[in-house]
């Protein structure tokens, strides 16, 4: 079965640079979520989209923005990167009304 | 207050034994969902099992079952017949209907299975 696809899988950036993470949900899933997992931490919810509209917002810094496109893929844009942004970034998808959120493999971002 | 509490930082079990990973939750919402995810050392988050607050039967998926005790606000994961490949971090998570779509995770339990 098709899973959530994230690209790139690994990314190294320097402080103050920008990064764009991409997420392709499971086909027919209409809801996308972004989570950030710091080293040794549990995942923290950043933001979610349903049918290309932002549905919920969590602890997403103002330096970050995200959107969902007409083909349902989503991009997380991160600017003015800081060392503390180094983390594993997960995208998850689901069908609205269904409980399960299926996670992608994650993008490991390292800021140096 | 913690919404999801996993009190066992680490658990050790031998192959073929059953193991229970504890999870308690805190919510005033009547409608919520409880989830368990497995995170191997490779990093991916693998969905294991889901229990809705209105589900009367405990959820089961293969070797995984969720022992849902609503009055005690607990949602323990039971893994039967442990395998070496079960060694991983296990996260309990909750979604509250009134809080939207976000999953709130516990701190996780590291399970080590030995032969």
List keywords for this structure.
heterodimer; A: 112 residues; mainly beta; seven-stranded mixed beta sheet; four-stranded antiparallel beta sheet; 11 strands; 51% strand; B: 115 residues; six-stranded mixed beta sheet; globular
Largest interface: A-B, 24 and 21 residues
Low-confidence stretches of chain B: none
The coarse overall form of chain B would be: globular
| Overall strand count of chain B | 12
What share of the residues of chain A lie within helices?
A: under 10%
Shape of chain A: globular
Specify Rg of chain A, calculated over alpha carbons: 13 Å
Distance between the termini of chain A: 36 Å
CA radius of gyration of chain B is: 14 Å
Structural class of chain B: mainly beta
Order of helices and strands of chain A: EEEEEEEEEEE
The largest sheet of chain B, given as strand count, sense and whether it forms a barrel, is: 6 strands, mixed
In percent terms, what proportion of residues of chain A is strand?
Answer: over 45%
Summarize the biggest pleated sheet of chain A.
7 strands, mixed
Concise summary:
Chain A is mainly β. In chain A, 0% of the residues lie in helices and 51% in strands.
Explain this structure to me?
The complex is a heterodimer of chains A (112) and B (115). Chain A is mainly β. Chain A contains no helices and 11 strands. In chain A, strands 2, 4, 5, 6, 9, 10 and 11 form a 7-stranded mixed β-sheet that branches. Chain A has a 4-stranded antiparallel β-sheet with strand order 1-3-8-7, with no helix packed on it. Chain B has 115 residues and is mainly β. In chain B, strand 7 (60-61) and strand 8 form a beta hairpin. In chain B, 37% of the residues are buried. Chains A and B meet through strand 4, strand 5, strand 9 and strand 10 of A and strand 5, strand 6 and strand 11 of B.
